[in-house]
Protein 1
Amino acid sequence: MSEAENEWLPQPDVDDIELVKVLQALADPVRLSLLKAYAAGKRFNCSPEELGVAHLHKSTVSHHMKIMREAGLTSTRAVGRNRYVQLRRDDLDARFPGLLDSLLKSLPD
Amino acid sequence: MSEAENEWLPQPDVDDIELVKVLQALADPVRLSLLKAYAAGKRFNCSPEELGVAHLHKSTVSHHMKIMREAGLTSTRAVGRNRYVQLRRDDLDARFPGLLDSLLKSLPD
DNA sequence: GAGGTTGTTGGATGATTGTCAAACGGTACG
DNA sequence: CGTACCGTTTGACAATCATCCAACAACCTC
């Protein structure tokens, strides 16, 4: 049994989260799907099937996750082969009060 | 003196405003500047200077305004040579409650 | 260690986008 | 009427982007 690593993937500091980049990260139907999945608590692994984007290649999903993380939308912890992703709710709410909530309420079914 | 026309430029119906398109329309620094100008009540003419994007060609500004209008963000009334633009506050708030408010509060200076 | 799993990276490609410039079309007003 | 004005449209161009595929790296299990 190897030492369980617990490494956080690089992400911008709270104060460096830019509105334009957040909006750019959200301006894509696939990433809105990911946002919805993350908001629903799906935080374990990145398989396209479980994230509701089964039609996409896994590298494409990885690409979208990177964009969201680098925009400041998500945090990712790498543990072994898995990625544990979660929304940066507190950080986003501190920086853009109410934005995430109204977004999540406005997401299409 | 010619008859003063009062023609509304084409825009989506309230129920047809899509979140993705709204976000795409907002995911650009220039259009965020326009949003800010419109929110501040600058509704008369489309000159790049008065809208705070003096570095851009007038056709570029016209292009951005069209994108915002077709996304459902703005309403435009054409009167003579002028364009009277305003935010669709009520429509946006009906469709995405709280979104516009939190956005406007989050706009950079 | 071998082989299967999970996610990332690089290249390639087609589509979209932001911008400008020039031409165009109404409009206002001498 | 002619000219200046204001915004739109079109074409062109470079840049960015979303996607796939193949190769790779790290990990887990047998």
Protein 2
Amino acid sequence: MELTERKKKVLRCIVDLYIRTAEPVGSKAIAQLPDMNYSPATIRNEMADLTSMGYLEQPHTSAGRVPSAAGYRLYVDELMADYRLSLDETQSINDAIEEKMQRVDKLMEKVARLVSQATDLPAISVASRSASVTVKRFDLIKAGEGSIILVAMLSTEEVVNKLIKLPVAIEETDLKLLGAVLNATMTQICADEFTPNLMERVMNSAGMGASLVPVVVEFVIDTLRRQESANMAVAGHVRLLEQPEYQSIDKAQRVLSSLDEGALSNLPAVMQNASGTKVLVGPENITEELKDTSVVMTKFDIGDGLQGMIGVVGPTRMDYAKVTARLSYFAESLSKMFNKPEQAQLPTAEAEE
Amino acid sequence: MELTERKKKVLRCIVDLYIRTAEPVGSKAIAQLPDMNYSPATIRNEMADLTSMGYLEQPHTSAGRVPSAAGYRLYVDELMADYRLSLDETQSINDAIEEKMQRVDKLMEKVARLVSQATDLPAISVASRSASVTVKRFDLIKAGEGSIILVAMLSTEEVVNKLIKLPVAIEETDLKLLGAVLNATMTQICADEFTPNLMERVMNSAGMGASLVPVVVEFVIDTLRRQESANMAVAGHVRLLEQPEYQSIDKAQRVLSSLDEGALSNLPAVMQNASGTKVLVGPENITEELKDTSVVMTKFDIGDGLQGMIGVVGPTRMDYAKVTARLSYFAESLSKMFNKPEQAQLPTAEAEE
DNA sequence: CTTGGCACTCGAGTGAGTAGAGTGCTAATA
DNA sequence: TATTAGCACTCTACTCACTCGAGTGCCAAG
């Protein structure tokens, strides 16, 4: 059977209406829509066709129709109208970002929270690094009697440090030597390249400072690894409960706990090579527990070799047009904010973390 | 009316049973308990008394009794049996702590998560500083052409840093001067004491480095404030849904969102001067939304002038004995862990945050 | 003081009956 | 040929009356 224009139109109206009402949609309701110039009977025929084609489902004989996963897929890909953000909406998104991003304490947590607020759905926010990180330069500062401070500037322009308690006193000259050796041998090297072999060589040439080398190396590897690992946050779980499909505790609990247990942690991988905004409808989600939910996600640019991703989780019946629009706009605003020159300090401020 | 021993015993049994079953308790059920040598009728009389004394409540005429807030209070303060942790329980708590605390990335988040796991309830974990923080010493490192790194060692032995981009070039000698001035004037000073007055004086004596002073001051104040502010995490919200009292979405949603919005943020204040384990029963909670829940919390010691607090939230009908025991043990284990010498690096590692 | 007995209350669960929304099919219509 | 009106049919959600049983309070006997 062929998918005529009219069939598409009917499908679109059904999905639109179902998104609004969360109730199965009947032929009468569709026929009554302003620009639908057909009788309920005609619509019924179309609906029967759409059902047999797999785009609609019927909870039971005398109920209206509900979109199937395939129906949503088609809707998302072809049918849905562009949602234009109102000035109010863009304004409030921008305000939220401006206001909240002053302190970059828990960046991803905050982004997730904001996205969740903007969409009224649980949200995820991830930052991951696209390239590997290395140390650009080491400094050693003598701090009081028995301790020194190791300062390392990373390839990302971030600066990290560690206070090292000395087991034995160390001379200023030895410290200088150690510093020179570190800078000569252990810069421009990523975490995986710190072999035992290298470490031995460094220790041999470090003189009195040799005993410090293992501590330094451990710290550096740990730091680089941490810098490279994805930083992820989920916020606003509770908003799922606002959706009529989660009025049954069982369902809600199953989904919420799977969110809590990090069911979303494989999303970044999905997004890796994609661009723009991506929608996963129901069964397309990898996790079993999220079979009845959809995910919308998009990338943004943090700058400094950091790649950001934000996404939301909701019932398959969610307002894809609106959510997609808000999410995209959000991503855009975030990208802008992170790359505004006067905000260049932000990623740096992260160095404290 | 007097609260006889037998009345207490009856009350204790009712609370115990209600905690187990979450169903109103009838006189028959109590009379059938092994060491209760009275008939249902007698128990009924006692229950009537306890009800008129305000320790019990009756959902409706023909239902059993349920403890009132006052009843729980009495139970917690006097009646409940000590809960002895089994070897299994202590073991698994210790294992969890050992295993998870290797990397101290998001300390409070992890603690909260663990506590929540150990108690099957939503948990909160807070770290707050008991004394105010000051800078102990400044260092300035020239990093490449146009930037310097400011390193500040705090009174807490933690080290923080910031990369500062220079608007104009600065000579090595000027940098030395600036460093000296900073160390002379801005150490041993807590966040509130950075007056505009002081800043002006510093700028006057800083020579070429004067333009950097505002940046430095802003960073320092921000850092000190951040160090002093409490660091808090809540985990395991979802576990509330496991409790029969939150089978109604409305209730669950109200409580969960208030948790999400930080309803617990005033708990640390409550705990400030208290010691040991504290229980807040129902209406004793300050927040309106938590009227029907109880909170159990206790302190632990992070060392380094840091004060920790862990707590859980649950229905007023919760197993106070068990929760209290596990929480106390948890706090004890955490204190031990944080103050073990070979783990002394942990709080230092936090310096990176 | 304790206990057995008894009438009473009230919620939870059951089952029949009804209203109404929606369908599929057929025959009439443009 | 495509559309529509009409109609019988299906199925759920809701209401209402009814019963069952757990639990109570009170009284009188032990």
Protein 3
Amino acid sequence: MNVELRHLRAFVAVARTVNFTRAAEQLHIAQPSLSHTIRQLETALGIRLFARTTRSTALTQDGERFLVEAQAVLDRFDAAMEQSSRMASGELGRLRVGYLIGAAVDHVPAILREFADQYPDVALELTEYDFASPNGGLDSGETDVALVRPPLDGVPDAVTTTLLSERCVACVSALHPFAELPRVTVAQVLPEPIVAAPGDNVWRDYWILASYRDTPANITHEAATFEAELQSVAIGRGLSVVPESVARLYGRQGVRYVPIEGMADCEVAVVHREDAPRSAANFARIAARVTAEGSGPDVRG
Amino acid sequence: MNVELRHLRAFVAVARTVNFTRAAEQLHIAQPSLSHTIRQLETALGIRLFARTTRSTALTQDGERFLVEAQAVLDRFDAAMEQSSRMASGELGRLRVGYLIGAAVDHVPAILREFADQYPDVALELTEYDFASPNGGLDSGETDVALVRPPLDGVPDAVTTTLLSERCVACVSALHPFAELPRVTVAQVLPEPIVAAPGDNVWRDYWILASYRDTPANITHEAATFEAELQSVAIGRGLSVVPESVARLYGRQGVRYVPIEGMADCEVAVVHREDAPRSAANFARIAARVTAEGSGPDVRG
DNA sequence: TAGACTTCATAGATGGCGTCTATGAATGTG
DNA sequence: CACATTCATAGACGCCATCTATGAAGTCTA
């Protein structure tokens, strides 16, 4: 017969009360069951733990020694359960965070600081993704949570929390006919040669305005980063559709940003899978709160 | 549901092999049972321990952390079992040894030395008993094993190992008619006034030769030690029947020792209860061996 | 000293659950 | 493309943990 924790729990209860009846009540079992369990334990160990009369119960010398051991095992077990509970609640563990370049850059430091504050025992692992991986590692399972720009692709059971939205603008060469316009329409943009993300997925489709088109876009170049896009644009390979905040982040050397009338705003969201560890949800919650509260360090200007 | 050691054992086995099928074989259970057990554990802990595909198994981050915990619990448990095993075999614990004054005095030091040598982790507690407690504390449960002179009384399930036997002699005053005789018969002793142990038990009966008598003995005095007996004898209260070795131990100031013809030899034995801890039997075994091997320090002369 | 009460052990019944067999689904492999 | 391997699921079975009922023994009280 295998000794189980229930034997130790029973033993410790009896050892502490020195009374089978009361110990049984504490354990929420019947007294004969407890007697049986203790007997099992004694048989398995090969030692007498209690000196029983019909009227009283006392620990034997061996029982006293074993009480220390049993208690130690149970304490160790409780510690393990405590730790697993902290893991379950997301207080303890590791969280792999992915972020797409240019997504919520203003807020990321505050989000991370707040999360680290609130969950000091969670090890954060940050990975930056470029437009070649617009899902921020969620599709491959490399990350647990990600700051990305929808739409996502290949992320089953994704839980998405939108953090902010902003206008989309057309980024054109300073020499481009659009360069000095106050705005352009989607219809004006569609025929233009366009610089797009690499690959072939719903995310790239989004930024080349595929949903507005009848015929395929004229993609003249592919770039995985804003810098690369802007360079391509600057040397006249075509225009590029980007979030408005890019204007702020990457300046205007050789390019101009022109709002696109009639195009829906684009968003930044924090995303995790439904079955991700709890800390992913915690991160998403904190990200949403931090983004809503402060607008981040004001680097505009 | 309560987490039991079998869950931890199952978890550790799977974590080590990273293979449900092989782990199940090691645990001697069927693979579906193991899957079920692991699932139970995961549910109870609220965390995913394994990342399972239909083709492979891997520990999650949480699983890796919990493996350390689970292993620690099992290690602690194994240590407890190891210790209880040592208690069961009598290698570890306490042994309460009682000895009757004058019983095997020559051999006791060697016995204790040998036992302490062989069982260094058993704490010996020695208690001396006089003729008021000829059972050496076995009857009251004060001791676990005792060096005594049979017969015993009130010790249920006594396991007796005879160590040695010796002649009985009559101890008489130097002025007593028997004093210069080379020997006396039982019949000669019976009518004499006699000094006996206190109380009323089979042991006292033995030394007053009750089994040889038709009528009660004429007990003139009671004494709980040899010294007291010899003093009573010396001042003429009567004779006393004692083991021959007493002559050697207590000298001859005012008394003489006369062999009793026709009286069976008396014995020294090591005794413990059937249900005594294993170390009691160990002690008895060692006592028998030491007594048989050496005759102890030679203090005769 | 007798009766009542307390406490632990025993006996027998029952039901929950741990384990089993059989089977399916998924996926890497020759 | 068929096969082998691995884990999950479903349903059945049987052990054993627990239960209720009762007994035995000792303590306390009147």
